[in-house]
Amino acid sequence: MKKAHNSLFDIDTMIELQKKIIPDLHEILVERYNILRLIHYYQPIGRRQLSSILDIGERVIRGEVSLLRDQGLIEINADGMKITKIGENTLEGLNFFIHRFKGLRDVEEEVAKKLKIKKVIVVPGMIQDEEIALKEVGKTAANYLKNMIQGKMIIGITGGGTMAALAEEMTKEQGKSYDVVVVPARGGLGKDVDKQSNTIAAKIANKLGGTYKLFYMPDNIDKNLLPTLSGDPMIKEVVEYIEKIQMLIFGIGRADKMAMRRGLNPMEVQGLIENGAVSEAFGYYFNKNGETVREVSTIGMSLDKFKKLEHIIGVAVGADKAEALVSISNLNPSLVMVVDENLANQILK
User: Fold this and answer.
1) Where is the CggR N-terminal DNA binding domain (predicted)?
2) How far from the centroid of its chain's Cα atoms is residue 115's Cα?
3) Into how many domains does the chain fold?
4) How many CB atoms neighbour CB 226 within 10 A?
5) Of 101, 130, 160, at which residue does a domain stop?
6) Which helix (H) or strand (E) covers residue 248, if one does?
């Protein structure tokens, strides 16, 4: 332990020395890191498009990409720029360094302390590009999820864009399988199949080499249908798995946006806001103190179950979700949050 501590201390000391001796190093390093990240996600991409996204002059971009090409990090063809294998490995290595370089470890500790939760993982921000933020936060959450799997586990998954990004960015490890069962924690919501909890659960299970159960039920149904549906053998089997969930990974949504997505009329949405609802998760609307304002009528994970879980991972992207994240953090101190840098900084404000 002492050796690891000294190693970390040396890295931090080196970074501080670099900042003092080469004050413009931070700006140059982050700029080239961002260029490499963008090429990775948008490849093949042209210089003009890259210049437009980063709001940097095309002349400057030309010089930067030439340097990256000369280092073997990218290749430039007629259809645009692409990252090489060396570039991908370099990007992976830079992730840790940039995280320390930007002081995000301190930010993580401050946010976790403020929210009074177990852990916060902050993914370095870049430009105001939600698509890339979703991909990178999803990838980080997926890696953390794999590291937290212990033996045979039942993992619960919710739907939504953040969870869809997690499933997409999760890598399948050759020759390695996890003995897990992945189940949707709630029913389906919306018409976008890729963001349905069933689709996401199946994709994550396949990448983990585990099995999955599908939940053939919408997330908001008529209360009168609940008793009949609960008795269906297929639904009953999945509900039994949901009650045995050992790890939950879920996306956090703003109450107003999720209410509209669920098809609530304007007056109902306004009513939620007037009653103080700021967040939504797995079918519940909460106020800033984590108190339930409204529950969607459905079969799935209960709030009591959520509060008792020891392994629970929340994922959120965007500074506009700060209030929602603070709200959810009141529910379970065992919560681990994976967020982007903009959201983390907004919470500290």
Assistant:
1) 28-96
2) 18
3) 2
4) 14
5) 101
6) strand 247-251
For residues 53-66, average pLDDT: 88
Please give the Cα distance from 300 to 311 (Å, whole number): 18
Residue 83 lies in domain: 2-101
Structure pTM?
0.84
3-state helix, strand, coil in the chain (%, to 5): 55, 15, 30
**Tokens describing residue 84:** 């090489």
pLDDT digits (tens, 9 = 90+) for 111-134: 999 999 999 999 987 666 678 888
Using pLDDT thresholds of 50, 70 and 90, give the confidence band for residue 191. low
How many Å is the Cα radius of gyration of the chain? 22
Place of tokens 């999720």: 258
Q: Are residues 56 and 157 in the same domain?
A: no
- Pick from 327, 252, 337: nearest CA to 291: 327
CA distance 258 to 40: 31
* Same domain assignment for residues 213 and 328: yes
We report the CATH number of the domain holding residue 50 as 1.10.10.10
Average of per-residue pLDDT across 255-267: 85
pLDDT in tens, 63-108: 999 999 999 999 999 899 999 999 999 988 888 888 887 888 899 9
Same domain, yes or no: 160 and 36: no
Report which DSSP code applies to 170. Answer: P
Q: How far is Cα 271 from Cα 288, in angstroms, rounded to an integer?
A: 16
Write down which residue in 67, 101, 135 finishes a domain: 101
